Amino acid sequence: MRTTSEKLTSSQPLFTAQTLVITGIAWAVLALLFFLLFSVPEAPGMGRPLWYSIGTLIFELVAFLGAAILCFRNWRAPQIVSGRNVWLAIGIGMLCYFLGGVLFGLWELYWNLAPDVSLGDFFYAITYIALTVGMVLAVSGRKLNLEIWQWAVLGAIALAGIALAYWLAVAEPIEVPEAASPQAIEQVASPATGSGTQAPAPASSTPQTAPAFIVAIDQALTPVAYYVNLFYVIMDVLLLILATALLLAFWGGRFSQSWRMIAAATFSLYIADMWFKYADVRVANYESGSLLEVFWIFSAVLFAIGAVLEYDISTRSRSRGRRRGGSSD
């Protein structure tokens, strides 16, 4: 016969809250090390290798898919305290970000396209809408009895976010000097091309492999690029304000730990998005994969950890109540 300690050990689930949290932290640390070690090109003017781009995409997709699964677990749990619809909305957001990443990876890495807008942006847009709905539901479920200093903090963060978003929206893209352009560098490096003949840009070394209908979709979506980017900036500011309100509303409460993670996840998403918008207009020949883009992975991991902590405290509270109610059995 097994001893009591052996029975207790065998009855413990494999994916405990502690195990899931440690796994998420480990994934974030591995992603950070990957970015730190390989995000800098081997030589000035050289792009990042394909394997690096694939690696960053894998880190991101796994993180968002894991976060979606954990959020949907909360949605399926009737005892979840913050409300099942809250986690349904956040889970949809995480899943749509995963699907958007898959499509963007196909566009950029498989078909060698450099789109301003792709079909992945459709799912990215749903992500921001779903996260906004989830956070509004979470905030509306609690009374925002904030003190004066808390309203001041919320107002200051809102103004700072709006100011940064406006600056990025009106900023003119940086002009690349002709002598520093990839074509000029290639021409200097290869004088045998002859005078008056430009060498092909580096992009031509990776020809487009997309089928005709994908190219047609890419061209059809290009005119709406400005409006899509403006939508992202507006939603980033809105999420920043909601995350701050959540952080203040749940501060010091019984479930504050999980919602601190959700707020931190939103801040991380904002940092990565704002950096990408800044680099897109202020960094010449910017190529995705720089260090600050690791905050997208941090965001997914923090959403996942928040979901785990919420599920853990909700189920433990319910279990204690059942034991008290069933003590007479």
Written overview of the protein:
Mean pLDDT is 79; it is low at 4-11, 178-205 and 321-329. Helices cover 70% and strands 0% of the residues. 31% of the residues are buried. The radius of gyration is 24 Å and the shape is globular. Helix 4 packs antiparallel against helix 5. It has 329 residues and is mainly α.
Topology:
Layout: H1 4-11, H2 17-38, H3 50-76, H4 84-110, H5 120-140, H6 148-170, H7 182-189, H8 212-221, H9 225-249, H10 256-282, H11 294-325
General form? globular
Kindly estimate the percentage of residues that lie in beta strands according to DSSP.
Answer: under 5%
> Nearest-angstrom radius of gyration?
24 Å
Q: Total number of helical segments? A: 11
Low-confidence stretches: 4-11, 178-205, 321-329
Topology order in helix (H) and strand (E) letters: HHHHHHHHHHH
User: What do the pLDDT scores average to?
Assistant: 79
Class of secondary structure makeup:
mainly alpha
The total strand number stands at: 0
Distance between the termini: 25 Å
Major sheet attributes: none
Helix content class: 55-70%
